[in-house]
Amino acid sequence: MSVTAEDIRSAATALQGHIIRTPMLAAPMLSRQLGCDLFVKLECQQYTSSFKARGAYIAMQSLNAAQRKAGVIAMSAGNHAQAVAYHAERMGIPAVIVMPAQTPFAKVARTRAYGAEVVLEGRNLNECEGTVNALIDARGLTLIHPYDNALVMTGQGTVGLEMLEDEPDLDMLVVPIGGGGLIGGIATIAREMRPNIKIIGVQTEAYPTMQLAIAGKEIECGGETLAEGIAVKKPGNVTRPVVAQLVDDIILVSERQLEWAVGALVEQQRVVAEGAGAAGIAAIYSNPALFAGKKVGVVICGGNIDPRLLASILNRNMAVDGRIARLRIDIADEPGMLAAISTAIGKCGGNIVEIYHQRLFYDVPAKLAKIDAVVETRGPAHVDEIMAALQAANFQVRQLEDSAS
Predict the structure, then answer these.
(1) What is the spatial distance between Cα 199 and Cα 249, in angstroms, rounded to a whole number?
(2) Where do the domains of the chain lie, and which CATH numbers do they carry?
C-alpha cells in the first residue's frame, strides 16, 4: 500500500489514548548558539522514550485474532523493540524481540521488563534477519518490521502532523534517518500540509545508506557509532522511494558532532537524547549556514541512552570546551608539595576533580615526581590563569591533550 496524508490523519485518531502527544518546544539557548529559530519535538518523552511507539501500535492493531494469538516478532537495536514489547504486553500478544548483541544494557533490560522474550544476535539489525526468519518459520510469528512496513510508516508520520499543527509556519524539518520510516511518514504529511517546506534528513558518516541508495551508489557502511538507532545497513523498500521523492537533502554527521549534540541538549535544553535522537541537532551544528535565520523543527526521536555513556559524553564535551583540564605538574618529592598545588589552584577558583601522584612509572629522578591533576574550570582562559598561578609558585606545568599520557 502507498501511504497518504489521510492515512496519517486516521492513524492519529487511532493512536489517541495509546501514545503521548509529545511537547513541541522552543529551544532559545540552542537557537542562539546555532543561529536559527529552533523548535524541538520531544519524542524522547514518548512511551518507551521513542517515536517507535506510534508505528508499532498502528501495525499491531491491524492484526487479526489468529496473528495475535501466535504472537509477533521484531528486530531492533532497542527503541522499536521496546515499543513492540510495550504494546504487546498491553494487548496480550506474545512478543519475541531479536536485538544486536551490542545493544546497550539499558535497552535490553527495559525490553525484557515489558515481558518480551529477547534474543541477542549479530552486530547490527541486518545481521538479525536470519534469526528472525527462522523463528517466524518455527513459531508462525508475525513480523513487525521497524521501518519497511507501510503501517509503521503511517504511524510515524503522526509526528510530523503534530509538529505542523503546533508550529504551522516552520521553514524546515530536520529528521534522523535509519531505515526511513520516520522521515517517510513525516515527509508524506508535511508535503500535503506545507508543500514548500524544506525537509532535511540526517544520517551518520558511518551509515550513509539512504543517501547512497537514493543516489544509485553502492552502499558501503559499517563501524561503531553513537547513533546505533539509525545504524541501518540497507534502507527499506517501502520507505526509499518516498524519501527519494519528498526529501530535499540528507546531511551526514560525524561522531564528534553527535557527541556535541547530545551534550548540548542536556546542558542547554535539559533534554536527554540518545545519539540518534540528537542527530538533527548535530546536523544544524555541522551546517549552520543552511539553517541560519530559519524557523526549524527538529525531531528528538529517542532518549534511550546508557547512563554511563551519557556521563562519558558530558565529561568529554567539558574537556573539549576547556571546562575540564588535565595538568601535569613536576614537583620535588618532599612534604608540602600537594598542599602548595592545591592552594594555587584553589586561590584561582579551580576545582580539583582527581589527582594522581606518580613516582614509579615515569622516567623521572628518584627525588622528583609528577602530579596529574584533573581540574574543573570556567573555560580556556581560566585554565591559563591556573597554570600561571602554578608557575608563579615555581612549578613546571603543562596541559595535557585528551590523547596525552
Answers:
(1) 7
(2) 1-319 (3.40.50.1100), 322-400 (3.30.70.260)
